[in-house]
Amino acid sequence: MELTCTMTNSLSAATCAIYAALAIPVLYLLVRHGRYGFLGWLFLFFFCALRTIGGALAVNDTSATANIISSVGLSPILLATAGILHEARHYRIRPLDKKMEWVSVLAYHMLVVAGVALTAAGSAKLQEHEKPLDKAENIVKAGISILAVAWGILAGRTGFSFIASRGRNSSLTRAGTVLLMAVAFSLVFIGIRVFYSLAALCTQRASLNPVTGSLAIRLVLGFLPEMIATLAYIFAGIRTQGAALLAHVEEETVSVPPKPRAQPWV
């Protein structure tokens, strides 16, 4: 029992240390990617911060707060993926209806916020054994199901982005492709994490608990998928850190009309 507790604390401490370190390059990329990638890298930073706080709280303490933070932590990684996908589409797709793009981004954010609010509220009631428990379980199931649907929407949107018409600027298109491939790669691991949470919250099995459950399950289905997805985004972000400047220059070029040629005297 003591060995299991020690190993659990070690995983929580490692989570805290690793994400605290990863937050530094993410913050750098937030600055480098500018307004085009602001949402994606901001939410990825929030994700690192939540995992750091959650890991610190889970060391020698399996309180309700640690469980709730573990559930809430899914929303920033989904929103970060949506933001990085938005940045990739901005670089890669031409023509792009910017108004509809922002409307879809806003609608997606509202969907994820609704899902995580229900998940957090239901988890809090379950942790406190607040009756009726059936109602709390239904709230949790509804919330995590919404997050699973949100993941599916991202997967579909990513697939359509690959077949959309591309822009002429080869450098920007290449940067958008790098980010888009990172999103597609990461969605596989984020999906593992989302459906692990779906199974854990719907079945309420002790071995699947994201904070106190089986160490092997938490490591393979929780810790590793999130870390792989985060690292994939960081590597793609470093490769494309100059794309924001290229996009800005392109917009400035398009917005400045060419000077009219002087008419010859007849």
TrEMBL record:
Domain DUF7702: 7-240
Keyword field: Membrane, Transmembrane, Transmembrane helix
Keyword Transmembrane listed: yes
Pfam families: DUF7702
Membrane-spanning intervals of the chain: 12-31, 38-58, 64-85, 105-124, 144-164, 176-196, 216-236
Xref: InterPro entries: DUF7702
Matches recorded under PANTHER family: INTEGRAL MEMBRANE PROTEIN (AFU_ORTHOLOGUE AFUA_5G00100), UNPLACED GENOMIC SCAFFOLD UM_SCAF_CONTIG_1.265, WHOLE GENOME SHOTGUN SEQUENCE
Protein name stated in the entry: DUF7702 domain-containing protein
Lineage: Eukaryota, Fungi, Dikarya, Ascomycota, Pezizomycotina
